[in-house]
Structure to design on (468 residues):
């Protein structure tokens, strides 16, 4: 007979997404169990963190632990992209990203989940969850034998590769990363390096253990059916063609070349009435952004508020699910468009199939640049294209509905504009006799200058038009 334990919420996977989720949900007072199959520290791809990671670490209260962990500060980044000219894409002075050891970084996160009150079963491997009335049964294998976790809500944080769900078909060209760790290279220590090649792109950075990580991103077809030896030879050949990374070849390669699927993906269903997918179990971004870990943690933090709402305010459950779906779609689309633009820039100068296929990923059409709106100063009204309808937003710890302003010039509706809610905006527009007065009225909620800027912003987008 298997042992049985109960939990309100069961999280499968203790990577950045699962740990961030568990920290937030446990702090909101829920009974959370996390199942992680590997003993930490364990190696993991995805070690470069942008300077914006510090905001997320602050939310989780682990800035000091991460700052003291001996990771490499990344203060300089060089990009040799379209046209082959080096661009300095370093963060502004005083800001820096990190090259972390994911084994240790993930251990710090999971420890924070424990401190917040989550129970962590590790190393313990979840098998396919089974739906049962009122929730889920998750069979778990560990050295202590089989355990059944019975939970009301299930969180899939098992990453890209998973034994608990079917992989979904990919859209667009498939990319593989060939990755190697080099020692005793002639590379100058310091900067992260990104470079466009003829039919690949390169990424390299120094690791906390003193090795240098050099990756080559190639079309997946280049690797299929080839032996490891051939793939390593191809990896070395490509490095000789790189201006920024070829000096690796003067060093020695630790443990050969590793292959990683680097194709972005998105799951069709990210949330149901009693389950949610977070991090790479839900979507993966093009590694060009170096934002995968942060996006995974953000999705975990958002999901915690969504699940908290679903468990405590049933009336808002649909709004919570809609919020999560929109947030995931937004993140994926923003990164997809940014990556396709970068690929298109290189395709312009290097029109090989590698770049053309990636640049061709459909890019959302940016709003047409409109001619300046007709000048007016008198009474304003909202354009007939404006629609007012509820939108789900996060209000502290819950998802809730607020009146939102929808308009074709906006990528997505807003419920607040610079601190002014839509209801107040509607009232002030109805009561003001001139744009000047509207600016002053809105300034009761914002500063005077911001009130004026807000009015110009609305006029430029033709959300506010002259009243006939
Ligand atoms: C080539 C490449 C380069 C990348 N470079 C970067 C980068 O520079 N910067 C960056 O931010 N991101 C990068 N990424 C993305 C980054 O690796 C991921 O975004 C990140 O690891 C996702 O975190 P996660 O928590 O969703 O999943 P994971 O980190 O994969 O964590 C999932 C966890 O679930 C556990 N698990 C899986 N199945 C089970 C099971 N059945 N039972 C129990 N536990 C289970 C695993 O052991 C693992 O610990 C890169 C990705 C690739 C492919």
């Amino acid at each position: 007979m298997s042992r049985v334990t109960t939990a309100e919420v069961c999280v499968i996977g203790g990577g950045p997404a699962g740990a961030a989720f568990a920290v937030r949900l446990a702090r909101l007072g829920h009974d959370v169990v996390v199942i992680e199959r590997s003993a930490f520290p364990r190696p993991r791809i995805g070690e470069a963190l942008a300077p914006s990671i510090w905001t997320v670490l602050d939310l989780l209260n682990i800035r000091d632990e991460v700052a003291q962990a001996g990771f490499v500060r990344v203060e300089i980044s060089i990009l040799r992209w379209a046209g082959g000219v080096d661009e300095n894409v370093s963060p502004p002075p005083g800001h820096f990203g990190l090259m972390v050891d994911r084994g240790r970084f993930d251990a710090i996160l999971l420890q924070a989940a424990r401190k917040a009150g989550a129970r962590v079963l590790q190393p313990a491997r979840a098998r396919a969850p089974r739906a049962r009335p009122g929730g889920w049964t998750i069979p778990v294998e560990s050295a202590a034998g089989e355990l059944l976790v019975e939970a009301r809500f299930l969180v899939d944080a098992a990453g890209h590769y998973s034994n608990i769900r079917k992989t979904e078909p990919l859209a667009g060209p498939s990319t593989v990363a060939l990755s190697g760790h080099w020692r005793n290279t002639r590379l100058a220590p310091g900067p992260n390096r990104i470079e466009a090649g003829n039919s690949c792109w390169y990424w390299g950075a120094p690791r906390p253990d003193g090795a240098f990580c050099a990756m080559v991103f190639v079309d997946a077809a280049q690797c299929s059916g080839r032996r490891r030896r051939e793939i390593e030879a191809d990896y070395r050949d490509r490095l000789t063609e790189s201006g920024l990374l070829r000096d690796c070849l003067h060093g020695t390669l630790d443990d050969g070349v590793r292959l990683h699927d680097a194709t972005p993906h998105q799951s069709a269903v990210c949330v149901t009435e009693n389950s949610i997918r977070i991090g790479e179990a839900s979507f993966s971004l093009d590694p060009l952004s170096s934002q995968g870990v942060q996006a995974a943690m953000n999705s975990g933090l958002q999901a915690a508020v969504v699940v908290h709402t679903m468990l405590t305010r049933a009336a808002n459950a649909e709004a919570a699910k809609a919020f999560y779906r929109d947030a995931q779609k937004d993140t994926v689309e923003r990164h997809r468009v940014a990556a396709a633009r970068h690929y298109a820039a290189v395709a312009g100068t290097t029109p090989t199939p590698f770049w053309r296929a990636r640049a061709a990923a459909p890019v959302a059409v940016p709003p047409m640049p409109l001619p300046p709106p007709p000048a007016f100063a008198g009474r304003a009204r909202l354009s007939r294209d404006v629609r007012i309808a509820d939108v789900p937003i996060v209000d502290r710890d819950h998802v809730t509905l607020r009146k939102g302003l929808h308009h074709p010039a906006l990528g997505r509706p807003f419920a607040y504009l610079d601190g002014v809610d839509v209801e107040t905006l509607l009232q002030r527009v109805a009561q003001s006799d001139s744009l000047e007065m509207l600016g002053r009225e809105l300034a009761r909620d914002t500063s005077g200058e911001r009130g004026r800027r807000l009015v110009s912003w609305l006029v430029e987008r033709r959300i506010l038009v002259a009243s006939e």
Q: What stands out?
A: The chain has a mean pLDDT of 92. The CA atoms of residues 223 and 231 lie 7 Å apart.
